[in-house]
Design the sequence.
């Protein structure tokens, strides 16, 4: 088991390592050269003209304004699509309009790249809503993630020559290039491969069949492959079916399972190389990659060891538990393939699931919680993961500066009190929303009524929901009945705060940094590359990101583990 | 602000057209051209052309002459209308009770310890596979019911076994529906039980 575990993890991360540089270079070429493809460039020019904007650079406020207007419009369009799906085509099951609270929750969830799902796709959403609304937001919410990373990277790395150099690029161009050159071609290839393995793609109504033994059963249909590919590549995670990537029509073989993990990791990991190119410091890019890499491998290894353990409450029965913890897992993936997938999907803020996280062992579930709690920076979602990581780096540089008593500087630019204030606020948002939200749920009858499991596991269910929403992950401890007005509204609020407040603060930092003069490094400058930097960065991530949550972790998964060891159930 | 709204409308229109219109249509076109069987659900039809299931989805089996699949949670998967599992945590007494009921339901099949996958609900409720051990554990009952030697059934299971990809990915497994279809192919459909 341990050998197999090591081999599976090694295969995944070796493939990732090999792909990081070529994909990172490709991304750099797309965003940072004026015409990535001469032929397509003329088409792009026409399109921009039609959309009536010029190739103007924007300062941070204009960039943020464009982003917010576009995202707000996305929420509105999605909300209306869901409310009117009963009157729209491609609805063979004749699903009625989605209730207003759920529709709002889903609209916010897909626009913020969270893809939290309080519904089951096959019994709620028409093919039209899934294909037109949700697939569309899968593309553009992922692209929005890319834009904020680009703006921050430019703000930190540009060399100003005059006080007017305050520009961070153009939001619309960054957005459209992400859609055209990154996500559309990538998703198309991935979708075809998924289809070859058995992922369905059709518009037939649900099949009513009579089985071999004569039982009446239903087979759900739909355009799944096209949505599945972008769900994975754009680190969205919203499944076509309720069972998400556990459904054989979404993830039919161990091979698709492997590729889904790789495709989730691909763009977030490659961006570290792109970042190295943009900042002209390739070693720093690799240092960041390595810090994320270590945490990702550690998580995957730990969780698969926990999931391979037998359940102490079942030892008295005449059963063979050598497969590990199989409740809520699919046999074709086994405990290893399920545990690795769960770890990857929480690392990178994707939220696609191929097993039921709620049924994981207490310590396995805690690995998932910690993966998200550290701030979705273990690669993180496309763009937004590295965006948050850069804020962590700024804090690390600040702490290192405090230790030696120098004004901290990053990439040759001085970091001053205003930037630090914003960075600290950025870090403080997450514990604030998560802990206050969880406490509110525990203290209200509406919050408590949705719990499925008694005992400490019930607290884990609520905690997981607020972490997942605030960190824009989207996976769930699915036992919690989240489709109530209370949860739909409060989780939507958590998703909005968790997405747009950090984006606002990060872009503000970019705006403050962009016009600072570059000072040449002296021997006293803290180097943001190499082993010392990696260790310091990892410590900051763990101390700042995870330790805040230790008390609540002790009350939920750790307490559950203690009870399990004593053979106590709830 | 007005200008931003206008651009946002235009960009929404273009991205909708490409990502929600052209892209799914292209995927549908190409995939149904190259993989028509897979994209329509890997469906299995009987002699009369009636669909009896999908290679990728499990279905309910209760006749002892057939192998039975992993359980689906209450009202989920092949027991209901939507996919999913129990979501019960490892310390949940409801889970322990369900497993206990499943054990007492099938323990008469074979006195050896029951492989765990046969008493735990899958994540989708449609898990089409059981482990090799689970198939071998059920083999004596199927052999008895069909009046065939155990060796014959075991060699059939061995021949239907799906190994790990590249020796490392996934678990060795057997597809229950395909195995049962093969049984019917060789030994004929089971008669009504006495």
Sequence:
């Amino acid at each position: 088991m341990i050998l197999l575990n090591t081999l599976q993890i090694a295969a995944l991360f070796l493939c990732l390592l090999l792909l990081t540089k070529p994909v990172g270079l490709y991304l750099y070429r797309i965003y940072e050269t004026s015409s990535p493809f001469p032929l397509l460039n003329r088409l792009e020019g026409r399109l921009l003209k039609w959309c009536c904007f010029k190739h103007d650079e924007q300062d941070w406020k204009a960039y943020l304004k464009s982003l917010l207007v576009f995202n707000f419009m996305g929420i509105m369009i999605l909300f209306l699509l869901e409310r009117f799906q009963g009157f729209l085509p491609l609805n063979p099951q004749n699903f009625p309009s989605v209730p207003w609270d759920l529709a709002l929750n889903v609209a916010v969830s897909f626009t913020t790249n969270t893809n939290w799902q309080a519904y089951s796709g096959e019994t709620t959403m028409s093919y039209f809503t899934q294909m037109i609304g949700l697939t569309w937001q899968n593309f553009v919410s992922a692209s929005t993630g890319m834009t904020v990373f680009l703006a921050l990277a430019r703000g930190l790395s540009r060399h100003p020559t005059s006080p007017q150099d305050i520009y961070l690029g153009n939001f619309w161009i960054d957005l459209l290039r992400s859609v055209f050159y990154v996500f559309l071609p990538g998703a198309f290839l991935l979708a075809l491969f998924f289809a070859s393995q058995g992922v369905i793609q059709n518009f037939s109504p649900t099949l009513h069949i009579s089985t071999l033994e004569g039982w009446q059963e239903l087979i759900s249909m739909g355009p799944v492959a096209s949505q599945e590919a972008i769900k994975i590549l754009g680190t969205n995670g919203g499944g076509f079916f309720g069972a998400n990537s556990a459904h054989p029509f979404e993830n039919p073989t161990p091979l698709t399972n492997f590729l889904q993990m790789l495709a989730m990791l691909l763009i977030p990991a490659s961006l570290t190389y792109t970042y190295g190119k943009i900042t002209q410091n390739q070693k720093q890019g690799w240092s960041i990659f390595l810090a994320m890499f270590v945490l990702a491998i550690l998580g995957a290894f730990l969780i698969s060891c926990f999931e391979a353990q037998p359940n102490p409450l079942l030892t008295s029965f005449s059963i063979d538990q050598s497969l590990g913890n199989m409740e809520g897992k699919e046999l074709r993936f086994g405990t290893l393939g399920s545990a690795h997938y769960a770890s990857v999907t929480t690392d990178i803020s994707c939220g696609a699931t191929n097993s039921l996280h709620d049924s994981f062992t207490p310590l396995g579930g805690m690995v998932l919680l910690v993966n998200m709690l550290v701030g979705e920076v273990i690669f993180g979602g496309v763009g937004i993961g590295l965006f948050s990581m850069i804020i962590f780096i700024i804090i690390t540089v600040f702490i290192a500066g405090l230790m030696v008593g120098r004004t901290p500087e990053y990439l040759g630019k001085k970091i001053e009190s205003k930037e630090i204030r914003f960075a600290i606020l950025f870090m403080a948002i997450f514990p604030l929303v998560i802990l206050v939200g969880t406490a509110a749920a525990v203290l209200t009858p509406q919050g408590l009524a949705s719990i499925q499991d008694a005992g400490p596991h019930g607290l884990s269910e609520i905690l997981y929901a607020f972490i997942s929403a605030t960190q824009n992950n989207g996976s769930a401890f699915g036992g919690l009945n989240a489709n109530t007005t209370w949860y739909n509204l409060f989780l939507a609020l958590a998703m909005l705060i968790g997405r747009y407040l950090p984006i606002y603060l990060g872009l503000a930092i970019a705006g403050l940094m962009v016009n600072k003069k570059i000072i040449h490094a002296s021997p006293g400058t803290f180097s943001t590359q190499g082993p010392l930097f990696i260790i310091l960065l990892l410590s900051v991530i763990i101390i700042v990101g995870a330790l805040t949550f230790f008390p609540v972790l002790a009350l939920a998964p750790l307490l559950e583990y203690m009870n399990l060891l004593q053979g106590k159930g709830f | 602000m007005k200008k931003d709204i206008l651009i946002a409308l235009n960009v929404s229109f273009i991205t909708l057209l490409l990502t929600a219109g052209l892209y799914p249509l292209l995927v549908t076109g190409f995939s149904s051209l190259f993989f028509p069987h897979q994209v329509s659900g890997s469906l299995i039809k009987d002699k009369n052309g009636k669909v009896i299931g999908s290679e990728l989805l499990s279905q309910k089996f209760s006749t002892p002459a057939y192998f039975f699949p992993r359980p689906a949670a209450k009202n989920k998967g092949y027991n209901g209308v939507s996919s999913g599992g129990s979501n019960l945590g490892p310390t949940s007494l409801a889970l322990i009770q369900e497993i206990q009921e499943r054990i007492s339901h099938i323990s008469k099949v074979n006195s050896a310890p029951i492989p765990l996958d046969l008493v735990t609900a899958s994540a989708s409720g449609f898990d089409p596979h059981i482990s090799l051990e689970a198939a071998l554990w059920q083999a004596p009952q199927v052999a008895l019911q069909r009046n065939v030697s155990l060796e014959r059934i075991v060699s059939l299971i061995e021949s239907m076994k799906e190994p790990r990809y590249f020796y490392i990915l996934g678990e060795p497994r057997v597809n229950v529906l395909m195995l049962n279809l093969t049984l019917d192919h060789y030994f004929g459909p089971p008669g009504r039980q006495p």
Q: What stands out?
A: The beta strands of chain A are 207-210, 216-219, 319-320, 409-410, 413-414. The CA atoms of residues 31 and 174 of chain A lie 7 Å apart.
